[in-house]
Structures are given as C-alpha cells and as structure tokens.
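In the design runs reported in the main text, the only information available to the sequence generator was the tokenized backbone. The following block is the verbatim input for one such run; it is reproduced so that readers can re-run the procedure and compare outputs position by position.
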C-alpha cells in the first residue's frame, strides 16, 4: 500500500482535551502539514451529547454519538481516544487496533488497567498505540524515557504527576485557600478528572506511575500493589509545620529500583521535600519529573501537567509521530515499535525494604503522660524520634503533636500507626507523611 498523502483522523471525545486537539490542529495546520509533509484531515468525531454547545465549531456532518463507528471506520488512519473511563474506551481502543489503525490516547487509567492487552492487540493486528499525553500533560516524558534515555536503567524516578493536586496544594500553601474552593477552580480550569477522587485520592498519579514504571522497568505494577495516598487530609497546619522543619509538601510518585536486591517499588503519597529541592519549587498546575539514569545521571523535566492546551500539545505530537509512521514505515520509529520493553524481571519491594524518615501529626489529649505513651509506642516498633513540636489544637483540652522520625521502614511505621490510633489519648486518625530525602 502506498503512503497516504492525506491522513484521516477520528477523535472519540470532544471535551477539554478533544476540543484542544481540534482547535490547535486547525490553528497550526499550515506549519504542521509543512513539517510533516502530509495533509491532516480532521474527519470525524464522536461525542455523548450531539446537542451540547462547544467552544470549537465542528460541522454537524462530522459528528456522531457512536464512538465504535469512528473506531471501525475504514477511511480513518488514526483514532484518538479522548473520552476517558476504562470500559467504552477499552472497547473503542481494541476495535481500532484490530483494524490496524494507530490509536492515540491520553487515558492513563486505561493503560494502567489494560495496557498489556492493548499492546498485545496492537502487535497482533499491526496497529500502534501512542500515549504521550497520558503522563505529565505537556511534558514529553514518554519520549524522553523511551527514546532519549534508552541507554539507561533507572534507579529512581520521582515527581509531581497530577496537575490538579499540585494546583490545590500550592493554593492552600500560598493563599491559605479552602480546599473545596480550590478544587472547584481546578475543575473549572479543565484540570480535574470527571471523577475528582481520581485526582485527590492519588489514583491518577498511581495510573501514571504505573505507565512510567512499565516504560522504565518492563513490569506492570497495578495500583493495588502500590502505596497510594492522596491529599485530602493535608491541612494548612501541615504546611506551617513542614515550613518550620524546612520542607514543602508535594504529592509525589516515587519509582525506585534496587538493582542489587532486584526490587522495584512504586508508591504515591504526599511527601515532605526539602525547601531547596527543585521539585519542591514547582507550583500550580505544573508537573515535574526527576529521572535518575545509571548512564546519564539525573535529568529533570517540568511543564504544565494538565489542561486543554498542554495536553493537546502532547496528543498532537503523537499524531505527528503517527503521520511519520504512516509515511515512512517502521524504520522511522524503531523505538516506538518496542511495544513490550524487554528487561529482566524484578520483584516488588516488601514493606521492610521501603525506608525513609517520617512526619507524624497526632491530635492528643493535653494531659500528663501522653507524650511518654506516644514515645513508648514508637519505641516498641524501634522507630526513633528525631524531633517533636507541640502546637495548640483547635479542640479544647487537646494538643497537636508533630513528630519526625529518624529513618525507619513501612512495616515498622504502619505497626506504630495502628498502635497510636488505638491509644485512648489519641483523639483523631493520625496523619503520616513521608519525608523525601532526595538531593536531585
Ligand atoms: P472530558 O472533558 O470529560 O471529555 C470527555 C469527552 O468524551 C466528551 O466530549 C464526552 O462527550 C465524550 N464522551 C464521554 N462518554 C462518551 C460516550 N459514551 N460516547 C461518546 N462520547 C463520550 O474529559 P477530558 O478532560 O477531555 O479527558 C479526556 C481524557 O484525557 C481522559 O482519559 C483524561 O484522563 C485524559 N487527560 C485529561 C487531561 C486534562 O487536563 N483534562 C490531561 C491529560 C489526560 P460530551 O462532550 O457530549 O459529554
Ligand atoms: N486530572 C489530571 C491532572 C489531568 O490533574 O493531572 C492530567 O492527566
């Protein structure tokens, strides 16, 4: 078959991201077509509600309410799945791949849950699956890991992967703004997922961490194999305490590989980062990823992690790669064709291998002997206290105790937490945060 001179594109989903893709391909068409050497035809789009008013004007003749009709349309070369969710999105993606099309996706939940099946289907039917927009919005982190850093193994990758949470945390820290109001702003700005719990409870970051772990280590780590904690229990008091201790607070994904033990650990949790750490200083909707490679050393990436324009930029970069692949064949995209990274297998790190310092905030009865009981519980699990701050609590007769520990491990810390929670002097569920002693 000869290479097409016009690439026909179908888009399933014209919400925040889909409309961004349509808008920017239309606006930058001349430059894009000149760079790619082909015509880009936005041929069809599927939406749920055909009558919904949209900021981007699209002829009614190009719209359908049936995404499967787009997925299986023989005239289309590329199908962009920009609906979200994992049920219909999976069906549409697999159907398009079975007809040998290139699928472009921003759907990290889908990749985390069904990545193995999707890549196997692409391979079997000669289709291709590109997913630059699925992690860290506009930052080309997939390309960086897969192509630019192909020479490396990756002892540590960590960073901010959720724009909504970073926006919320930054607003809470800088403006003392109430959580609910900032979350509403993030939704209005098009950053948040349709189900906001994916953002604030850490699941979206976990989906993205799973994609990065697979790219870096060739292993699918599911969210139930990770520590996943969100930001909903962080209060303005935690920012003040962290600042007194010389830290900022960020929701991080941390992916570490201990080559000697052959262990991999993927975790997502709010983390105290030293104020001088470069990731600690990334604010608002921006994401940041620090990648330590055994050949290159540490590289750092930052940019807008969510929102219409940043995400559209990443989707269009995949459309451009797809156009090159359609024109020039596999030779143009040698690395992208490696659909299953071939690496040695590694096992998931057990809790006692996960080591760090901890920050613990307890609301306790303000009575004699309480601090001693807390210290005893920690000592029983060999957790050593590094510092203690006592602040007044908003509750009458209570105090807020903030402790930091010397390095301990997850098994000991979780056992300590269970015991502290049961003490009669503990008045609220303790807040446990990890300290990220990352130098770069
Ligand atoms: P969105 O604004 O909610 O848009 C979803 C689109 O899908 C809407 O146009 C909707 O149609 C359409 N849709 C949903 N169910 C459908 C169905 N059953 N049949 C036909 N069309 C259907 O979502 P989004 O923010 O653009 O996100 C899309 C994807 O990109 C998600 O996977 C998300 O995780 C990912 N992503 C988003 C961002 C971001 O910043 N927003 C960034 C990176 C990745 P109607 O318009 O008619 O309702
Ligand atoms: N809801 C996601 C975020 C969108 O806030 O990061 C980008 O993947």
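Verbatim output:
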């Amino acid at each position: 078959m000869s290479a097409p001179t016009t690439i026909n594109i179908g888009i399933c989903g014209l919400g925040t991201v889909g409309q961004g893709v349509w808008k920017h391909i239309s606006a930058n068409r001349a430059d894009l077509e000149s760079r790619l050497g082909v015509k880009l035809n936005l041929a069809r789009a599927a939406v749920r509600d055909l009558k919904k008013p949209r900021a981007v004007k699209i002829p009614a003749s190009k719209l359908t309410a049936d995404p499967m009709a787009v997925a299986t349309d023989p005239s289309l070369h590329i199908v962009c799945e920009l609906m979200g969710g994992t049920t219909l999105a999976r069906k549409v993606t697999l159907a398009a791949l079975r007809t040998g099309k290139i699928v472009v996706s921003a759907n990290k939940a889908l990749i985390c849950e069904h990545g193995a099946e999707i890549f196997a289907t692409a391979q079997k039917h000669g289709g291709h699956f590109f997913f630059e927009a699925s992690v860290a919005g506009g930052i080309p982190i997939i390309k960086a890991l897969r192509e630019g850093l192909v020479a490396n193994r990756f002892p540590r990758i960590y960073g901010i992967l959720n724009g909504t949470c970073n926006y919320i945390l930054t607003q809470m820290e800088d403006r003392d703004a109430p959580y609910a109001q900032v979350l509403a702003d993030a939704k209005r700005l098009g950053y948040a997922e349709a189900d906001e719990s994916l953002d604030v409870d850490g699941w979206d970051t976990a989906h993205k961490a799973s994609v990065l772990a697979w790219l870096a280590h060739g292993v699918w780590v599911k969210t139930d194999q990770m520590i996943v904690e969100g930001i909903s229990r962080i209060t303005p008091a935690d920012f003040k305490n962290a600042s007194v201790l010389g830290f900022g607070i960020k929701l991080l994904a941390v992916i570490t590989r201990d080559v000697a033990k052959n262990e991999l650990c993927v975790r997502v949790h709010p983390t105290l980062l030293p104020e001088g750490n470069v990731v600690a200083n990334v604010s608002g909707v921006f994401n940041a990823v620090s990648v330590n490679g055994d050949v290159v050393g540490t590289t750092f990436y930052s940019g807008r992690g969510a929102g219409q324009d940043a995400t559209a930029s990443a989707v269009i970069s995949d459309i451009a790669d797809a156009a090159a692949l359609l024109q020039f064949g596999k030779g143009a995209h040698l690395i992208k064709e490696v659909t299953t990274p071939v690496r040695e297998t590694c096992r998931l790190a057990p809790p006692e291998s996960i080591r760090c310092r901890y920050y613990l905030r307890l609301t306790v009865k303000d009575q004699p002997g309480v601090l001693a009981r807390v210290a005893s519980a920690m000592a029983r699990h060999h957790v050593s206290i590094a510092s203690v701050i006592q602040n007044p609590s908003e509750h009458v007769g209570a105090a807020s105790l903030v402790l930091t520990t010397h390095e301990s491990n997850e098994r000991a810390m979780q056992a300590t937490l269970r015991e502290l929670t049961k003490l009669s002097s503990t008045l609220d569920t303790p807040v446990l945060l990890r300290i990220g002693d990352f130098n770069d």
